[in-house]
Design goal:
Layout (H helix, E strand, L loop, with lengths): L2 H20 L4 H8 L3 H8 L7 H10 L4 H9 L13 E3 L6 E4 L8 E8 L4 E4 L7 E9 L2 E5 L2 E5 L4 E3 L6 E5 L5 E9 L1
Antiparallel strand pairs: 1-2, 2-3, 3-10, 4-9, 5-8, 5-10, 6-7, 6-9
Length: about 190
């Protein structure tokens, strides 16, 4: 792992530990709620591994938050302006998926996230990760196949899709270029 990846893994690990401590949960409590083993949670909390998006989504859902909220809380201190150089960027080591949290920390329920998914790559999330959010996606460039439950949506640049009821979802960058898209989500 690079120093930046090590730093981000350690930062995320500390945030997960802090969220767990705020709730007075043991590792076993978080493991039961997230479906992630105690050994893996311990390794993540100590910053010894760079967890995948799939693992972080399960952990975030156990806390009742989105992946982007978990990452933002790990990186941000608050304030109304979040400069591009300060926006948390996270790369999924499993897919190369890059997630940039654009929104400053605030009490508003809106979050903006920019995602770049390499050509040919796919990333899947369980319905539980969408249980407390509503979201829309706007494709900036590339082509994206978004599978929502049993329905496949083929998106071209400029297309905007409002997601329906929570269901298992898969994002697939069809190629030949990466898919670059904006996700607007509202918590609650």
């Amino acid at each position: 792992m690079t120093d930046i990846a090590n730093d981000m893994s350690a930062t995320i690990g500390r945030r997960i530990h802090a969220e767990r401590a705020l709730r007075d949960w043991s590792l076993a409590d978080l493991a039961n709620r997230s479906g992630v083993s105690k050994a893996m949670l311990s390794t993540i909390e100590r910053g010894m591994t760079s967890p995948t998006a799939a693992l972080l989504v399960r952990i975030a859902a156990a806390f009742g938050m989105t992946l982007s909220t978990l990452i933002a809380r790990a990186e941000q201190q608050g304030g109304g302006l979040l400069r591009e150089s300060e926006q948390p960027v996270w790369r999924d080591p499993g897919t190369g998926y890059v997630r940039r949290h654009l929104s400053p920390v605030s009490d508003t329920p809106l979050e903006l996230i920019r995602v770049q998914l390499p050509a040919g790559a796919s990333v899947s999330f369980p319905a539980a990760s969408y249980a407390f959010i509503k979201q829309q996606m706007w494709l900036i460039s590339g082509r994206l196949e978004f599978t929502e439950g049993g329905m496949v949506h083929s998106l071209e640049p400029g297309d905007c899709l409002a997601l329906g009821a929570p269901s298992d979802c898969t994002f697939h960058a069809v190629g030949p270029q990466p898919a670059d898209y904006l996700v607007a989500l509202v918590r609650g």
